[in-house]
Amino acid sequence: MPTFPAGVTPWLVIGLGNPGAEYEATPHNVGYMAIDALLVRTGSHLAPLKGLHAHAAATELAGKPVLLVRSTTFMNESGIAVKDIAEHYSISLDQVIVVHDELDLPLGKVRVKQGGNENGHNGLKSTTEYMGSRDYVRVRMGISRPPQGVTVIDHVLGPIEAGPELDSMIDVAADAVTEIVNNGLAAAQQKIHSRK
After folding, report:
1. Is residue 1 predicted with pLDDT exceeding 80?
2. 61: number of Cβ within 10 Å
3. Exposed, middle or buried: residue 11 (CB in 10 Å: 0-12, 13-18, 19+)?
4. Distance (Å, whole) CA 60 – CA 58
5. EC number(s) per UniProt (predicted)?
6. Is 31 strand, coil or helix?
7. Is this prediction's pTM over 0.90?
8. Are 102 and 141 in contact (CB under 8 A)?
9. Which residues of 102-138 are buried (b: 16+ CB within 10 A; e: fewer)?
10. Active-site residue 28, yes or no?
């Protein structure tokens, strides 16, 4: 179980997704992909959080203590992991960052916000339910709406197209997390939202 020095409260950065190889390369798992990018940047490795429905790495971003997390629950129960970890490490809502796929953004676009509706996203619905609030920070990774004739379920759980657009979005999402931790939400919005 990762630990931090007494009196130090880490940021909780959790990527939403579904565990298992069959879901790995799907639009619903781009949150996991952003966490993986941050793990590479920090030279960190995930380890099970015993009893907390997640794998995590204790590390630093911009010199600040951070817990990088992949939940091991399925998407619609993501809130269980968020709540358990936040309680275990005494992390307040304003230091919780949820990284997730977003149907209402075009593929490749990253946006940062605090609070707001869940827009039908089951991972966000679960997080809001278990945390008792919508006021956590979200890093939203665009996956676009499905083309005509394709259901949302088939779209989010189908194969995602690999390539420069996806790679760039993952990098920008990782940058967004780092900027939030280092300089706060407003600075991150200004920096990330000004990108083409």
Report:
1. no
2. 21
3. buried
4. 7
5. 3.1.1.29
6. helix
7. yes
8. yes
9. bbebebbbbbbebeeebeebbbbbbbbebbeeeebbb
10. yes
Element of type H or E holding 15: strand 11-15
132 vs 122: CA distance, rounded Å: 15
d(CA 167, CA 183): 24
Characterize 71-94 residue by residue with b for buried, 16 or more Cβ atoms within 10 angstroms of its Cβ, and e for exposed. bbbbbebbbbbbbbbbeebebebe
CB 22 within 8 A of CB 67: no
Residue carrying the six token digits 């300089």? 183
Give the tokens for residue 22. 């069959």
What's the mean pLDDT in 34-58? 94
The pLDDT of residue 196: 59
Alpha carbon distance 193, 189 (integer Å): 5
Tell me the binding residues for tRNA: 23, 74, 76, 122
The three-state (H, E, C) secondary structure of 64-129, written as one string: EEEEEEEECCCHHHHHHHHHHHHHHCCCCHHHEEEEEEECCCCCCCEEEEECCCCCCCHHHHHHHH
Angle at 26 between CA 147 and CA 50, to 5 degrees: 145
Whether residue 161 has pLDDT greater than 90: no
User: The dihedral of CA 160, 59, 13, 192: what is its sign?
Assistant: negative
